[in-house]
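> @MW can you paste both from yesterday?
MW: sure, first one:
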Amino acid sequence: MPQNAAPETIDDFFERLGARLPDLPKRLKQCGDFIAANPDRVAVSTVAELSADAGVQPSAFMRFCQELGFSGFSEMQKLFRTDYSRKWPDYGTRIQTLKDHGSGSPAALLAEFVDVGRTSLENLLTSVDAASLEEAVKTLAGARTIHLAGFRRAFPVTSYLAYAFEKMDIPAVLHSGLADVSLTHTIGPEDAVIAVTFAPYSEKTITLADVGAAQGAKLVAITDFITSPLTRLGAIPLYVAELDVGAFRALSASLSLAIALAVAVGSARESLKMEKKY
């Protein structure tokens, strides 16, 4: 695709956004960060609404669209309306319907979380690239020790991975930050780091992943978008975007990806042991 041509698919859009985002001016970067975190909004919002929520002027949003190769906002929105719905459904309407009919009851709230959890799991099948998953499993299976880095809402994912690896006798270190004790010195060139973070990204996770890469460890990222800082560190990306209920996001898809990854790594390590034995 010519450099100045508009992206033809959502995947093309996010690939271009990931490549250009670090070099964009501050206001245009705000636009990119907002779209990366709220891609479902583009198809159903006006440029004024998106600009206000991103904290920029509409003119900045228009410049952002042109920077990505579109003639303007309408052309970018058309792409999202025709292509995006095939992979990530618009869930806002369904959630609002649940709220309207449930009158804010606990049962309605449960139904909302079940609904977005189901959709997040369905989306996982398209957001995780099969080749990247295979590469991640191969990398982790061959690692001496697997280091787990994930803070704030990502911590349940890494703590679960630590539990699963322990049950399978796979050497792993959970970097919890407890008592402000750093374990980065334990990361070696024969190791691998699984870094888990979602927008707004944890600086502690990014820093730990950066240190691990500098010490020769291979990186696997469980993150949400191609614009994640982890992708710029050369991590093998496994993308998972959790839908939310209000400001609250469950971890249905993230934990499903984590257990699938752990079991696949355990199976791959057993196969490697058998190969060495015979």
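MW: second:
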Amino acid sequence: MHSSALMGVQLVVSLLAASIMQRMAPHCSFARWLLCNGSLLRFKHPSEGELCALAGKQMPKQNRRDRRQNGENKPLTVPKDIDLHLEKAPVNVIDALVLRFFLEYQWLVDFAVYATGVFLFTECYYSVVDASKEVNIGAIWCVLTVLFCLKTLHTLMSHYFRSEEGGERSVCLAFGFLCLLVAMLVLVVREDYLEFGLEPGFSSLFDNLEIFVKQQGYADWSIPVTKLTVKLGLAAVCAYIGALLAFPGLRLAQTHLDAVQMNSDRPLIQILLHMGFLSPVIVLVLWVKPIARDFLANAPMGKTSVTLVSSEAFDSMRLWIIVVSCVLRLGLTRYHLQAYLNLAQKWVEQMKKEAGRIAAIDIQRKVTRVFCYLTVVSLQYLIPILLILFSTLSLKALGDFSWSTGAQDTPGVTPAIIMPTAAPVLSGALDEDEEGMEDMEEDIQATVARLSETFTALRSVLTPLFYRGFFAFLTWWVAACQVISSLFGIYFHQYLMQN
């Protein structure tokens, strides 16, 4: 009963969070506040009358009507070097509701906020109550957030694949093949250099799975796949994630350069922007054993070595560093989004330096298109951060790590345990009024027994040792993909675009 009560508290909090998120979304949304709190300024496109006035000519309405009736299709053109200054306006809710992918953006960001709240509750709850044998509901929310982030990125990439031009499709495929090669190289590196823990994690998975299957009566069954097959499948998944993160990395490079230039008179903001941009590199270094763990655990001092940080303290410190870096990048969201919105004015300034004439409708479309893709850019900036953050939170919760030093134990290969069976219900002489209640209790007991069997089976096969290797590698790989794509974006925008 004590076990069921603990599970009940977590389940009630989870259902309450889901209910609040569904009911409060139309009225109170963090995602909507992030775009519509008045800090972001968009640029309005000029009207034809304003462009005609700047060009020094007038175009009567009657003439435009006569041309339409006569079948002529001559768009209004103006010189490119006109003195055009776009009008600014704060982004409001009415403007945001018509943006492309706004509903996907709002739902994902709000879900991430509530998932963080559920995770914090479970962390506080587990620090007070010894619930080591219970299912961590907060970890389930974190894993779901990771899956929803990947699903949203897939939706964005499918939009590129449906594009008629095909250039975006080629970029995604090229990055996918590049990441496939990089992943195959990374997966053959020994644990002495990259300490993900994949090898012991897979060994634990295969051993426990074989024991579990034999307990079910399949004595002659053997695992049909090898570790090489699993690694090839994992490399294919890495290539897919790399293709998903291609355009977010390229977009990050562009907004980073523009944000640094936009805050040229604020050195502190520039330092924070550079720190946020380089934070994925820090994530990569944290899993390079000779640079991170060995340096701190066995720091060379002459002919001897000094232990600066214990192994358990390093694991906790690594979690904190990643979380703090993600929070820093989330705090810089407004600067990156405003840098993107400024592309409209930046394009106008570039147009003024060119000779010739341009159609008024082209100016209006170019300025409007920048604002229409605001939520897409927001997703491209936020999703990689959320992937790293919630992969790290899943690593902490499912890998039995601790936020404090020296509190966690190194997980071993936990053997599969025998599945519990539901306790038989004693039958006796019951009154007719009590039979209905007894049947209901039997159904509840059977349901609880089935859920217990399912979760026990998962816990016996998927051990903390496996979760440590899987989520450590996922966190590291997302950071690696963003480093590859963003550095290529820096090179593209700084050198190739200049030539």
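> thanks! The beta strands are 41-44, 77-79, 87-90, 299-301, 304-306, 357-359.
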